[in-house]
Design goal:
Elements lengths: L8 E8 L9 E8 L4 E6 L5 H8 L7 E6 L2 E2 L5 H7 E4 L8 E2 H6 L7 H10 L14 E2 L8 H15 L3 E5 L7 H14 L4 E5 L11 E6 L2 E6 L5
Parallel strand pairs: 3-10, 3-11, 6-9, 9-10
Antiparallel strand pairs: 1-2, 1-4, 4-5, 7-8, 11-12
Helix pairs in contact: 4-5
The structure holds adenosine-5'-triphosphate and magnesium ion (MG).
Adenosine-5'-triphosphate binds next to helix 1.
Subcellular location: Cell inner membrane
Family: Belongs to the ABC transporter superfamily. Cysteine exporter (TC 3.A.1.129.1) family.
Protein name: Glutathione/L-cysteine transport system ATP-binding/permease protein CydC
């Protein structure tokens, strides 16, 4: 199958409305992200940020425009190739009624216990190993996790999957300032050489990003570096 170790993103004149909705959630939007660039997307609630990330994963078909990865429209990619290319931290993390191990490896079946434990330490989740270790049962009938712990499970999953394109939807939402800083540095470290598109409401960490876009009503209304904005 097609594999790639870098990802260049090209979005051209993208238009998307949800079924039955008159207003476009993404409206004539274009974006070019060279391989290896780290980009932040800011914007008010409802401005279309999550929709844009979902369109990149082909969760929806746009009415107009194209999205290409490495110069190939994603509509031409196989499901498997697209999945291996993209690592996602969605806005809402789903935990399955399964072990901690299975909850981490669902997108990274090749990861061994040593890697999983290492990633739990890096994301500050080592406490979850107390008791049953990687066999701890999560979800229904098992251990419930705090919002911040769920966020970091999402980040751990994405980093274990390790695709060349990382899409992060509010990766540090609900984390205290110290933990947020730890996660931002981790993302920067693991994201080196990868293309990273991060949606955020937070100002912390923006100085680590190469470029910042501000979204409003499905369009970018401002763009620049941290210093320019
Ligand atoms: P937030 O910062 O609150 O996460 P966002 O910028 O991610 O907001 P989106 O979730 O992309 O915003 O939503 C963009 C627009 O599309 C909003 O008007 C929202 O109400 C609408 N929308 C989102 N999901 C759906 C859906 N599944 N069906 C219909 N409309 C939707
Ligand atoms: Mg959102």
């Amino acid at each position: 199958p097609e594999t790639a170790d870098s990802a260049q993103v090209m979005i051209t004149d993208l238009v998307f409305s949800y079924p039955g909705q008159a207003a476009a959630a993404v409206n004539q939007l274009s974006l070019a992200v060279p391989a290896g660039l780290h980009v932040a997307i800011l914007g008010h609630t409802g401005s279309g940020k999550s929709t844009l990330l979902q369109l990149l994963t082909r969760a929806w078909d746009p009415q107009q425009g194209t999205i290409s990865l490495n110069d190939k429209p994603i509509s031409h990619w196989s499901e498997a190739a697209l999945r291996s290319m993209i690592s996602v931290v969605p806005q809402r993390i789903h935990l399955f009624s399964a072990t901690l191990r299975d909850n981490l490896t669902l997108a990274a079946p090749g990861a061994d216990d040593h890697q999983l434990v290492g990633m739990l330490h890096k994301t500050g989740l080592e406490k979850l190993l107390e008791g049953d270790g990687l066999n701890a049962w999560l979800g229904e009938g098992g251990r419930q996790l705090s919002g911040g712990e769920q966020r970091r499970i999402g980040i751990a999953r994405a980093l274990l999957h390790n695709g060349p394109l990382m899409l992060l939807d509010e990766p540090t939402e609900g984390l205290d300032a110290g933990t947020e800083q730890q996660i931002l540095l981790l993302l920067r470290q693991h994201g080196a050489g990868k293309t990273l598109i991060s949606v955020t409401h937070r100002l912390q960490g923006l100085d680590l990003m190469d470029r910042i876009y501000v979204m409003d009503q499905g369009q970018f209304i401002e763009q620049g570096t941290h210093q320019q904005l």
